[in-house]
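Notes from the 1:1 (GR / supervisor)

We went over the backlog. Supervisor wanted to see one worked example end to end before approving the batch request, so GR pasted a single chain during the call. The sequence is below; no edits were made to it. Supervisor asked that the structure be written out right there so they could see what the output format looks like.
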Amino acid sequence: MSHHHDPDHSRGDGTSPRSDSTPLNWLLLLPLAATLYPPLYNRDEPRLFDIPFFYWYQLAAISIGVTCTLIVYRAKRG
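Structure output shown during the call:
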């Protein structure tokens, strides 16, 4: 009986390989870092279409988070 090593199931030490070890996962920290320090965005100016910076920055952070998540998700599937 031959033993063949299947990297998808075991590393030989009884543990499964990490599926989240790609450096692309660091991209997921970008939206967190963008909102972690409120003094960075807690202001009125510059305004965008008369919307205070605080509000449009938060909406932009959500869009950045969705985009980063989509990039990482697609990279892992492909």
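Supervisor's comment: The helical segments are 29-36, 53-77.
Batch request approved.
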